[in-house]
Design brief:
Layout (H helix, E strand, L loop, with lengths): L1 H14 L34 E7 L4 H5 L1 H9 L5 E6 L29 E6 L2 E7 L1 H8 L1
Parallel strand pairs: 1-2
Antiparallel strand pairs: 1-3, 3-4
Length: 140
């Protein structure tokens, strides 16, 4: 009886195989960034010395194409930190976005469209990118 018990225990120990634990990948969406939302007029009111601000719309195809990447970046505590501005018709639009570099107020800034990534350092606009490809390239 004792031999049978030892044999059974040995068989169980030797036959157990470890299984990998599968962790489902997290889906990052704009719904997760409520605490990082700022207003257009508040673009320069952020306390960080260096940060990004992404202007986006949940109904924009190009914004949705980069949703996973930009939200993952923002929630991973990357540096510089990223904030989000929901697109509105009140955000001014223009063509020559490079002329906005050096701006220190929102009155000096316009965008091409969305998505737009603005980079602010020491209360000055130092970067202005438009479009999903340019934004993804900057963040990766």
């Amino acid at each position: 009886m004792r031999k049978g018990f030892v044999f059974l225990c040995a068989t169980l120990l030797l036959s157990c195989q470890t299984q990998e634990i599968s962790i489902p990948s997290m889906k990052y969406t704009y719904d997760a960034i409520d605490s990082l939302l700022i207003s257009w007029k508040g673009l320069f009111d952020v306390k960080d010395a260096h940060y990004y601000a992404l202007i986006f719309s949940k109904s924009c195809h190009h914004c949705l194409a980069i949703e996973e990447a930009v939200v993952r970046y923002a929630l991973s505590e990357s540096v510089p930190e990223m904030y989000f501005i929901q697109a509105t018709p009140y955000i001014p639009k223009g063509k020559d976005i490079s002329s906005t570099l050096g701006a220190t107020t929102v009155d000096e800034i316009f965008i091409l469209g969305w998505p737009t990534l603005l980079e602010i350092e020491e209360d000055t606009l130092i970067g202005h990118l438009a479009g999903e490809k340019a934004i993804l390239k900057k963040l990766t």
